[in-house]
Specification:
The chain is α/β, with parallel strands linked by helices. The protein contains 18 helices and 19 strands. The protein has helices at residues 11-22, 60-68, 105-113, 117-142, 155-164, 170-177, 181-188, 207-215, 225-237, 279-286, 290-293, 298-303, 335-344, 358-361, 391-405, 414-417, 426-433, 478-497; strands at 3-7, 26-30, 42-45, 48-51, 80-82, 87-91, 98-101, 218-220, 241-243, 248-254, 257-263, 266-269, 272-275, 309-317, 327-331, 353-356, 372-379, 418-424, 465-467. It has a 7-stranded mixed β-sheet with strand order 7-6-15-16-17-14-18, sandwiched between helices. It has a 5-stranded parallel β-sheet with strand order 9-2-1-13-19, covered by helices on one side. Helix 1 runs parallel beside helix 18 (478-497) and helix 3 (105-113) crosses helix 4.
């Protein structure tokens, strides 16, 4: 039996650990926080329960696959129900136009036809185009690693890469198909789910709204943290060990091979190490051997492009809001300016807002007769922001959030209805979850930081060392990060099969 140490109990690390434990490996996992999940964390305050980071389930089969690979029934671990409508969208302008976006294509078509037959036809053409590209990405890119140039620079793979049409931006592609500005923005802005602007993100990322529309948006009972707890519990069922409140100080390298980790000065040995700590942080702070960093020198890490961050308010409310859905998006009146501000670091004068009400999906997450609000604002990461995230800045952004949410149905008096409050800033994402520069989604998935250009699961500079997480191929977003954990486990097992462990 080979022993594997996993550093970090984030989504990808847990995914890797489950798969390896189910395959018979001895698993030991070290997590700096007191509960599993990484950014899939939990805040409990005054009787209200909130997911810290991700809140919205897409591609439920990917979640369920983690449990099926261990011979378990996912329904026993992560009971889910589908949301209908999937979410509401408001535009922050005088008419405050509202759209309820249905996962039922018949209802969705009716909404689009209200905007004109040209819009409905353009949407169908977009869907057909992006679905074809999605299948290519799924078969040839998202589910496979790139160990060397030979894995990508072949006639067959180059031909598949051309089918992805990655040189167009997400918003430009959407505008080619759909002339109605509201529908364009409602769909293309969702690249922010993975931390990149639709102005710069490759058009392939328009698969995100397609996945929602074709496979639905779901809710896990107990919230997203249920997924993290369930994976951690399954690891322990499979005889794996998880150490909480255990910060790894160093991944120990000897003679070009990872041989274990140091925790509080104590060496814990292993045959291989998987780091689920954010890749830039791993390289700069956990790997002391410069040769083991490979091409990712500290200087290169600093020059790479990082995703946006998030400012999140968690509000315990003194009433229920029956006129709101579980998920609501408020899009800035000038979305282009909003996006530019996020990624050039200037102060955001007109922010877009995402509101999740977890207690709408599960009433147990708030006291009886009350709701909890999760209010997220995409903001600049720390190295990009031209201002500090101090109390003054937080209060200014809070006032914006109050102003925008107060325009929603039943929310006119919202400021006086907040009875409990917590906040998560980019500084918190950096300090609590080792997100480099506080970039919530890791490395930006720009064209030059995607697929074979993105850091890979298997280290090319050190044997027995593997990586998983949002900065690793295939990228950010919970389903994709779960896939990252799967790839890391498969790469490690492949090396064992090839007898590369000495």
């Amino acid at each position: 039996m080979k022993k594997v140490i996993v550093v970090g109990a984030g989504v990808a690390g847990l995914s890797s650990a489950v798969r390896l434990a189910a395959a018979g490996y001895e698993i030991e996992l070290f997590e700096k926080n007191d509960i599993p999940g990484g950014k899939m964390h939990r805040i409990s305050k005054d009787g209200y329960e909130y997911d810290v980071g991700p809140t919205l389930v897409m591609m439920p089969d990917v979640y369920e696959d983690v449990f099926r690979c261990a011979g378990r029934d996912p329904a026993d671990y992560i009971p889910m129900h589908r949301l209908e409508p999937m979410y509401s969208v408001y535009f922050n302008r005088p008419d405050h136009t509202r759209y309820d976006v249905s996962g039922d294509l018949v209802k969705l078509t009716e909404m689009l036809e209200d905007k004109g037959a040209e819009t409905a036809l353009g949407f169908q053409r977009y869907l057909a185009d992006i679905y074809g590209r999605y299948q290519v990405a799924l078969d040839y890119f998202i589910t496979r690693p790139f160990r060397s140039w030979k894995d990508i620079y072949t006639p067959k793979m180059l031909n598949q890469a051309l089918k992805l049409k990655t040189f167009d931006s997400a918003d430009h592609m959407m505008a080619r198909y759909i002339k109605d500005k509201d529908i364009q923005q409602m769909l293309s802005f969702q690249t922010l789910y993975i931390g990149v602007s639709p102005q710069n993100g490759p058009s392939l990322y328009n698969i995100i709204p397609m996945i929602e529309l074709l496979y639905g948006v779901w809710y896990i009972k107990g919230g997203m943290h249920t997924m993290a707890k369930a994976m951690a519990g399954l690891i322990e069922e499979l005889n794996g060990k998880i150490h909480y409140n255990s910060t790894v100080d160093e991944i120990v390298i000897e003679n070009g091979r990872a041989v274990g980790v140091k925790v509080n000065g104590t060496l814990h040995q292993a045959d291989a190490v998987i780091s689920n700590v954010d890749f830039p942080h791993t390289i700069k702070h956990l790997i002391k051997d410069n040769k083991a960093k490979g091409k990712y020198t500290d200087e290169k890490i600093d020059k790479m492009d990082y995703s946006c961050s998030c400012l999140i308010f968690y509000w315990g409310m003194d009433k229920k809001y029956e006129d709101l859905e579980t998920h609501t998006f408020i899009i800035a009146e000038d979305l282009d300016k909003n996006l530019s501000s996020i990624f050039d670091g200037s102060y955001i004068e007109d922010a877009s807002i995402y509101l999740s009400i977890p207690s709408r999906g599960d009433s147990d997450l708030a006291p009886g007769g009350k709701d909890g609000f999760y209010v997220l604002m995409p903001v600049s990461e720390l190295a990009t922001a031209k201002y500090e995230y101090n109390s003054e800045t937080i209060e200014k952004y809070r006032k914006q959030a109050i102003s925008k949410v107060s325009r929603l149905p039943g929310c006119a008096n919202i400021e006086n209805e907040i009875v409990s409050e917590s906040v998560m800033t980019p500084i918190d994402f950096r300090d609590k979850f080792s997100a480099y520069n506080g970039a919530t989604f890791g490395l930006q998935p720009t064209l030059r930081q995607s697929n074979h250009w993105r850091p890979q699961a298997k280290s090319k500079a050190c044997e027995g060392l593997y990586f998983a997480g949002s900065s690793i191929h295939p990228g950010a977003g919970v389903p994709i990060v779960l896939q990252s954990g799967k790839i890391a486990a498969e790469e490690l097992r492949r090396d064992v099969t090839e007898d590369s462990f000495k």
